[in-house]
Amino acid sequence: MGTEFLKIKESEEAKEIISELYEKYYTPQSEEIDISDAYNRVIFEDVYSQIDFPPFDKALKDGFAIKSEDSFGASEEMPKTLEVIDFLEAGSITEKEVENGKAIEISTGAAMPKGADAVVMVEYCEKGENEVNILKSATPGLEVAKKGSDTEKGKLILKKGDILTPGRIGVLLSQGFETVKVYKKPTVGVISSGNELINPGEELTYGKIYDVNGNMIKSDLTSAGAESKFLGIMKDDYDEVKTTVQNGLEECDVLICSGGTSAGLGDMIKHVIDELGEVHVHGISIQPGKPTIVGIIDDKFIIGLPGNPVSAIMIFDVFVKPIVAKLAGRSYEFEKKVIKGQLTKRIHSPVGRMQYQLVKIDGENIEPIFKDSGAIFSLSTADGYVKVPKSVELIDAGEEVEAYLFN
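Given the sequence above, the corresponding structure tokens read:
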């Protein structure tokens, strides 16, 4: 009996269904976290400054705080001599006021004393015991950062969706924030399925293969902003599949299974979803990756990826990663960078299904990688892929094509 896919969809139709299901069942959540844990998290709401920054007029250089008018006309040949009445380090203040003929020695970052409107850098000064010779004329505001010149209280400083880089964390720290509201990471579980699979480190007996998809997909989920969990390998046994799926959905927001998605006798995912929820997509008209399942159980996504590693990662990146990233507050564009070049070898494609053909890029040459979807090493050598429309059976060598780059 031939393989039967009950709800096979075109690529764009499948994307639309997944998007509609996301809008129906998911709303991004927030959490308040400590600033020390905020690196690479995504801000959940606009952030406004709590104070003026800097919060006071401050010196930008080591030197002498003066009234600028006292330095007018000063030069090395005709210095202006002022009395030094105090010394200010960063963090200290003084009750003394700078009057005409007076100066206060000041360090970078210290608050400007009352009466002073400029700082003459130490390089342009000759200090005596209680006096200083000013060797250069200063203008009002020279080497002074005015209160609120960086940002004023109540100003928008970070926007919803901004990723917290070290610089942005620095902005929050400058405002005295101890915590920040960020998108809560969605918890996504990954399960591998197949009697032939074993974990790395176990003895490789005849007929067995090491599981690739579980931790490969887990790593890709982490890059999408998820809290990802590999939940192990399950056998092609209906009761085991059902129990593993139920347990996975209890602790995860989204559950991804690889393998066990085609319509063969040993494939259980579709039947489990039918019993516990509803299948919305069973097969996508795409190569590689036709045996893909999208379902809902208990208002949560359960997505079945093909077992072959190339198919699994391509389907994940095209259809699944965008909605996981969105739930985590991130944007993800799979087909972001495109280059044009000449095909070095002919591509044959099955009519009726869009094909994603892996390729290597060498200057203006685009070379197809002809390996089956289970050939994991093709992923390590591929720079991207060429899309062959479902109506096209052949693209000849020498034709100009567009290649979509992975990085």
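The CA atoms of residues 347 and 395 lie 5 Å apart. Try to locate this feature in the token string yourself.
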